[in-house]
Amino acid sequence: MLVRASGIVPWRRKGKKLQVALVHRPRYDDWSWPKGKLERGEEWVVAAARETLEETGLRVRLGTPLPTSWYGLGTKDGRPQLKQVRYWAGTVAGGDGALEHEIDEVCWLPADEARERLTYRRDREQLDALVDAQADGLLDTWTLLVVRHAHAVGRGSWDGPDPARPLSPVGVRRADRIVPLLEAYQPEHLLSSPSLRCTDTMAPYATASGLGLQTRKSLSEEGFTRSPDKALTRLDQVLARGEGTALCTHGPVFPGLLRALTNLAPQGRERTMLTRLARQGIDKGEVLAVHLAGIGPQATVVHLERHRPPA
Q1: Contact of 55 with 36, CB cutoff 8 Å
Q2: For strand 189-192 and strand 213-215, is the pairing parallel, antiparallel, or unpaired?
Q3: CA proximity to 303, closest of 246, 265, 267
Q4: Which of 164, 172, 246, 275 is most deeply buried (CB count within 10 A of its CB)?
Q5: What is the mean pLDDT of residues 5-14?
Q6: Nudix hydrolase domain: from which residue to which, for each copy (predicted)?
Q7: SS3 44
């Protein structure tokens, strides 16, 4: 039996020194990272953000993934249990710090002191990865969330102008499910094609977050057909700003955007994945989280995460 959980290693800099946040559970008298089990149908990143908020009272913005932990939990009903815990680096974006009964203390410590305080040796693996990323200049990242609009009413069954074609019921449900996913990364800017199927994909999160949704014709199918390079100009502007951004557009626009991001990825998994997605495309309603370090032409793609809608 597999028990799935996820959590976050919150980090900050105090002066020039890296600090991380540990939580203390009085029930077990242990020090570890904030984490918890996934609820039914919940995505890993959503659970990580939710559990961290519940345990620490802090809203933490997810950064790059950290190593996954695997360990046994003994048996239940005669069956062995294996626990899988996925982790992300994260920075505090808000919250009141109020603690729940399961946690009685949150402690910010320098990395070397945290290593000594951690109860479980397995938790040091995430700390080591965090420290290594800091040394390599790849810890302080921002996230570009590339969103393909959710499923829309088919062109053949729509009599109105194509930009006014709405989401289907399946698409509406996916737009709602995207809200907690985007909340985990907490983008600071929302960009969209002005086509209704794109704005309606982003509208639930715009409402929930209170962020304004900016529309750009260069991200529409019609604008792309007229001037393909303008979408790349929009991407360059996002890269130059270097702040968390969710960008919703259409299938035909993606190959050029992803090829441009490929040029920012070193050889390896991320470059290979971007090349493949530029060729094959991404699913309707999919969110591609692109973690970048640095800004502008010097930005580096550090990691990619695909969040695909249920089949």
Answers
A1: yes
A2: parallel
A3: 265
A4: 246
A5: 96
A6: 1-131
A7: helix
Whether pLDDT at 101 is above 80: no
Q: At 110, phi and psi to the nearest 5? A: -60, 155
User: Quick one: pLDDT at residue 102?
Assistant: 87
Give the mean model confidence (pLDDT) for residues 119-137. 97
Interatomic CA distance for residues 156 and 153, integer angstroms: 9
Domain 2-135 fold:
Nucleoside Triphosphate Pyrophosphohydrolase (3.90.79)
Using CA atoms, how far residue 140 sits from 16, 33, 143, in Å, is: 13, 19, 10
Q: Which CATH number fits domain 141-307: 3.30.565.10, 2.50.20.10, 3.30.450.40, 3.40.50.1240?
A: 3.40.50.1240
Distance CA 135, CA 85 (A): 25
Nearest to 241 by CA among 268, 262, 214, 267: 214
Contact 111, 48 (CB under 8 A): no
Quick one: 197 exposed, middle or buried, by C-beta within 10 A (0-12, 13-18, 19+)? buried
Closest CA to 239 of 219, 222, 257: 257
pLDDT at 78: 67
| Start-end of H helices in the chain | 44-56, 111-117, 124-135, 169-185, 196-209, 221-226, 228-241, 254-262, 269-280
| CA 133 distance to own-chain centroid | 18
Q: How far apart are CA 154 and CA 95, in angstroms?
A: 42
52 touches 235 (CB < 8 A): no
Where are the chain's structural domains? 2-135, 141-307
- Do 140 and 132 meet the contact criterion of CB atoms below 8 Å apart? no
pTM: 0.95
